[in-house]
Every structure is written in structure tokens, then in C-alpha cells.
Amino acid sequence: MSTLNQTSRRDFMKIAAAAGGGLFLGFNWSDTTAAPVVVDAKQIAAGSVKFNSYLSIGSDNIITIVSPNPEIGQGIKTAFPMVVAEELDADWKLVKTVQGKLDNAAFERQVTGGSGAVPHSWERLRKAGATARYLLVNAAAAKWGVPAAEITTADSKLFHKASGKSAGYGEFAEAAGKLTAPTDIKLKDEKSFKLIGQSVRNVDNKNIATGKPLFGLDFYREGMLFAIIQRPKAFGFKLKSVDSAAAKAMPGIVDVVTFENSVAVVGKSTWQCKKAREVLKIEYEKAADLESSEDHNRIFSNLMDNGEATVRRKNGDVEAAFKGAAKVIKAEYQCPFLPHSPLEPMNFFAHVREDGVELVGPTQTPDRAREAAAKITGFPTEKITVEITRQGGGFGRRLSADFAIEAVHVSKLVKAPVKVIWTREDDMTGGTYRPAVRYRFEAALDKNGEMIGYKLRGVGINSGNPTREDNFPSGSVDNLLIDSVEHKSAITTGPWRAPITNFLAYAEQSFIDEVAEAAGKDPVQFRLALLEKAKKSPAGEVKYDVDRMIAVIKLAAEKSNWGKKKGVHQGFSVYFSHRSYVAQVGEVVVEKGKPTLKNIIAAVDCGIVINKSGSLQQVRGGVVDGVGHAMFGNMTFKAGTPDQSNFNGFRLIRMNEIPEVDVHFVDNGISPTGLGEPALPPAGGAVANAFYKATKQRLRNQPFINEEAFKGIS
Amino acid sequence: MALFKLSINNRAYSADVEGDTPLLWVLRDNLGLVGTKYGCGIAQCGACTVHLDGKAVRSCVLPVSAVGKAKVTTIEGLSEKGDHPVQKAWDEVDVAQCGYCQAGQIMTAAAFLKEKPKPTEEEIVGAMSGNLCRCGTYHRIREAVKVAASKTN
């Protein structure tokens, strides 16, 4: 089980003590069985009780809540305490949040990835708030001599109507702290939520706007050395020899050390290390194929036709359906590798001491760092602490632990506390990219324009399974075959925000648009008809909620006034991913012969919206990310070396290039299903389909900016 | 190595560094002013934006030797209590997601509004398009600049 580390407990106790200790409740947001328990301050301080979250209510009415997950910009540090505060009927102005730096021994859900943080913890956070409220009510009932059931709560206050008695939570915090928490607690009716669904500002706004040291890169320690690392310049190289004499003679350089295929320049400042790295003389030798982008195109073509495919899903008789088809539509879509480009480059602090290891930095997977450190140093995992800082974006990159592992190696070798810093160039050329993929879609239509057959083959480079075989349109087509081929490459890949679906959704939704057109049907009606079919006579198992998907399609169509706007070219897209449903309409207007993306209208079903402000921005940001990378994102290779190494070569979307994004949430009372990713996948399809309407040219490859339709348009 | 005397946020600092060290790294590594962020090192992202005599500059490409007697303002010194109209607007509009780029965004916006207190939307977009935000908070940055402009007049 994961527990809160000492620093977090100390931070928590500091605020709780200032608030005049009263009620302390320990709870586990990542444990399905355990109920919240009343504890005392000494136990928390000593670490003799093991919880991964605490809440306290002080005599001055201040409520302190530890928010667990690493904050990478998904708003969890604000949303989690909101859920607790809702059930507690707390006055939000009196709630303080402490970022929990987790120190877990066995991996559970402290990963910020897969949009899973909120849905995972929803009920447990509610129980914690409800339990604290129950204790306060019972403490007041005892003192006032009235039945607990007659006491109501609101805005951190207790009321007994009949007697006219009332009190702030702080007044009964101490008495509540002497009661025993119930093991089974009743939760609120979701219709009575007051705080949840409101717009609450990010709890760290002030710290961010005043430049407080929040991020991993901002962590400095007295006596700490800096390290800049030279990794192999091409994927496929391994280290042959190093001449570090010149680098060692540079000012401020303490040492140059080598581990695995890396050479670390260690010194007294970032700049000195960076300059010294430039004079390293390193020879590499080839350990694997040094691939170029042209090789990848050849590999895609070859494997698409001749590769040995793994079948992912099969329904009915696809061959027969295509043989008997009145019309067959076929198209290929391709995407490039993409770096994650979080604005805070990778960095990590490690101090390998004689008695253990201290790790501090921005990671989404502290356990991977800990386990790797244990392997490198030989210390048991309980001698290794990991402190998670705020993270300047993740997008999947910080799910890998490579940078933390490097810090451990270097600290061990130089026997000093060390901060490893990646330059932007290191970050962009350092791998773990979104894999490059090519898809081939084929659809068979009967004479009525019904889709009777569907085939998808995905070929990916280090992609694992590049399909999501149970996603739409699976279930809605009687004869279906989805398979995939993978090419293993020296170019490293990893999860990238909305893994696989970040590209697949666009390709599929653009292809569905092609099929609808070939069938002579409206793209929205065509999708709805397929979903009706999946509902009434499903082909095999249907693993998405058809009704929720239909609902977002209808909402997006309604809000965009689909098909009825003059002079506006609309494109439709819908996708179920990471447990949420999002439909989007892209709107392109042609001005002076130039097609421009003006708007995206998004209809989102992520269940209950916890923080309206945060959720709205998650959707807008996800759409901007999806549009930006679809339009501009491109990473190419020559002999294993990336051609792009910084933001001058790799284009990120800027303010002057964004569409307006109009967001509508479905209000259905279903438990929340996360929002860090689901708004991104449909964006590319909405854009491509809208541009098609405007230009009659399909955008089948990303980045769109390199497509024929955009020639001459910047 | 040479000793550079710097005026930062109305305080005197000195740093013993090589003259080609970018101001960014002097602020961060030598002076403990880490609010100014490193994003690209080649003046492409704007995360490192500070004011030099009131004008927005990219500290990642400004050698410390070129600062001279100019007054440097970093995010830590933009206001005493974090209540500069731009900082307040950033909270009011709830701009930040991860927050990493926002110090640079705020410094760019503050310098821009000083020059152009009543900007049009087009001028705002023009002024802010040099700063990258990987989370895509551009709609809110644009809105916050408008809010700050409306409050300062």
C-alpha cells in the first residue's frame, strides 16, 4: 500500500498544528476496502499509522486535506479536496491543500496517466468527507443532547433547528477526534451537491503567478552538483570510447563519468556542464539499424502487405462481405513519431548516501524510480525515498523513469547529491516518442449504403497493439477484421497523451467520413445508424456505452447547428476513450481563398464534472493539443538521428493558431470518468473532416501542414 | 570567471560566473531566483522572459555580461505581494494548468500592457504568440490579458 512520506506528513502537520489540532482522519484514496479512521497527531508525525491521505479540522475551522496524485496540470490538486469538502459540507474558503508526496512500497494507483486518477478515488474521497461530517455531527449531538439525525450542516457549520443551536466545525473538532469512525458511511445524494460542479480556481494559482519553486527543476539542495548527460546521438548507437580530458579541464567541472551508453558531465552549474559537454570527444559504434524516415515508409508499405499480422478482433465473414459488396472504400492514414515536449524538460535529483537513497523530482511513476534505484545501488526499497514535485507537464513522458535512473547512476558514481538536467535538445531527441503508425482501412457497402464489412490493419513502429479493437465501429458492423503488425526499432517509444487513440481516433473518424460520403449519407446520421445497429443487433461484444456515445453526438450536432450554417464547413468526429465520450464539430471558413479553422464545438460526457473551471480548461487544452499536433507535429529521422531538436524545428501550436473551443458537458449524474485525455483524440478528425468539406481534399497524413491541401498556405 | 554586479528586483546581487552565462542560469543556479523558467534555451518558448529596464527579454539568450547596469525584474519582483494586475487576472481567469510557462507569460503580458494599456484582441494575440503553452491555456491567457487591461485603466 502507498503511504504518505515524511515530508508530506510534516507539511500537513505544520498547517494542521497552526490550525489548532482537533480532528484528524486518516484515509486511503487508493484502497477499496479500508474505511477512514480517526488518528492522533502524534501518530501521524511519527509515521506510526500508514495512510496515503489525511484530513484535519482545527479549532480555528481550518480544514487541511492532503491531495495525493502528482499534479501535472490535470487539476487533481484542486479536484480531490473538492470531493472531500463536498461530503463534509465544508466552506471551501477554509480548506487548505497539501500536495501529498507519496512514498509507497507497492505500486498502486498513484500514476497520473490514463485519465484514471479521479474515477479511481471518487468514492473513497467522498467517504472521507462524509466520515468527518458524521463525527462532527455526533460530537455536537452529544454536547447539545439532541439526536444526531436532527443536526444539519452547511458551510463548515452545524445547526440544530429545533433548539436554535449552531456552531462552527472548529468548536467540535476536538470532541469529534475522540470518537470512533463508522465503518459504513452513507454518502450524499448526488443531486444535492453544492461545491461539486462549481468553478473553483486552482489552489496553486498564487504560487504559480509569483514564481514560487514548485517544480522539479526548481529543486536545489546545498552542495548539490549538476549533471548534463551526453546520450548516443543516434538510436542504434552504442558507446565505444570517451575522451573527457578537455571537458574535465573546463571551469566548474568536477568529474566526467560514464555509465551504460551515457557520459555525464558533472559540475557546479548547469551552464558550465552544458559547455563542457560540447568538448567531449565520443566515439560510437553501430548496435542496431540506424533508421531514417524513408526506411519507415518502406517498412510500413512492406508490412502492410506482407507482414504477419496478429488478429485483434474478428466478427462474421469479412471476405464474403467484401466479395458481395456493391462498393468498397479503402484508405491509408499515417502519423509520425512525436516527442512529448512538456515545457519543463526532464530532470531529477538523487543523493545516493551510505545509508540509503533520496530521490526528488517530477515523475508520474515513483515506484519505477525506486525499484531501479534499488537495483543500481543494492539498497532495499525501504531505504529509498521518492519525493514527487509539481510537474511542468507530462503528456506521458514522465511515466518513464529513465531520467531518475540516470540521476541515481551519477550520484552513485560521484558520491554526491546530483541534479540531472536535460536540455530541450536532450528532451526532444531523447526518445520514448509517440510511435509512428500507418493504418489501412477498408469498408464494404451494400447497395443500400449499409456498411456490411470493415477491415483495419495497423502497422506500428514499437507501438505494441496500434489498434483499439473493441472501440467503435466494432459492434456495429457484422463482418469485421482488425489486426496489426509491429516493427521493432531502436527508436524508443512510450505512452503519449491518449496513447494510440491520439492518432487512431482521427484516422478512424476521417475514414468513417469517407465511408459516409461514399454511402451518400450525412456523417452524423451515418454514425447514429451504426450505433443503433450496435444497440439492436450487436456484432459480438460491445465494450462502449452506445447510449452515451449517441448522446454526445446529438449534443454536438445540436450545439453546432450541424449542417445548417451558411459559409461554414463543418466536420464531425466522435470518440470513446479513457472511459469518457467526446464528440466534436470542426468549423472551417474560407477567407480570401484560404481555409481557416475557426471553431471546435465539443460535447463531453465525463460523468459528473467536479471542477467546472478545471474541466473546461482540460477540454480546451486537450483540443488545442490535438489540433496543434495534427496540424504541425512532425519528427523525422536521418540514420537514427532526429532531424528536429528544439522548438525552432519542431512546431508547437501558438496562440495565433488556435480555434475557438466551445465546450458542452452532458449532465447525467454518472460517476466521473476522467478528463486528462479524452478531449484530444477526436480533435484531429473534426479538423480533417471540416477541411475536406472546404477543400475536397482528404488529410490522410499528419502533420496536415505537409499535405497537398495546405501547399502554399502557412 | 568574473564578478558581475546586478540590480534585480531593486536589490543588488553579485555573481561570480563566466561572462557568457545566460542571465537565466545566473538567476536560477547562482541567485536562487527560480521563478524564471528554462524551456528551450534558444528564445523560442518565452518561459524565461524577464524585464530589462521594463522591456520583456528572453533571459536564456542574454549573456550576463550584456546586462550591465540595466534593471532586471523577474517574476519574483513583478509586485511585492503578488498583486500586479496581470498576476491577479491570471488567478481570476484561472489560467494555469501545469503552470510552468505562466511566469514567462505573465512577464510578457505585463511588459506589453505597459506599452499598450488598451490593446485590441489582435494586438494581444500578436504580443503573446511568442510564448508557448504546452497545456494549451491560450484562450485563458488571452482572456486574462484583457481582464488585466480592463482593470488597470
Automatic annotation (TrEMBL), chain B:
InterPro entries: 2Fe-2S-bd (IPR002888), 2Fe-2S-bd_dom_sf (IPR036884), 2Fe-2S_ferredoxin-like_sf (IPR036010), 2Fe-2S_ferredoxin-type (IPR001041), 2Fe2S_fd_BS (IPR006058), Beta-grasp_dom_sf (IPR012675), Diverse_Oxidoreductases (IPR051452). SUPFAM superfamilies: 2Fe-2S ferredoxin-like (SSF54292), CO dehydrogenase ISP C-domain like (SSF47741). Residues 2-78 form the 2Fe-2S ferredoxin-type domain. Pfam families: Fer2, Fer2_2. Keywords: 2Fe-2S, Iron, Iron-sulfur, Metal-binding, Oxidoreductase. Its EC number is 1.3.99.16. One of its GO terms (molecular function) is isoquinoline 1-oxidoreductase activity. It comes from the Bacteria. It is an enzyme of class 1 (oxidoreductase). Coiled coil: none annotated. PROSITE patterns: 2FE2S_FER_1, 2FE2S_FER_2. This is Isoquinoline 1-oxidoreductase alpha subunit.
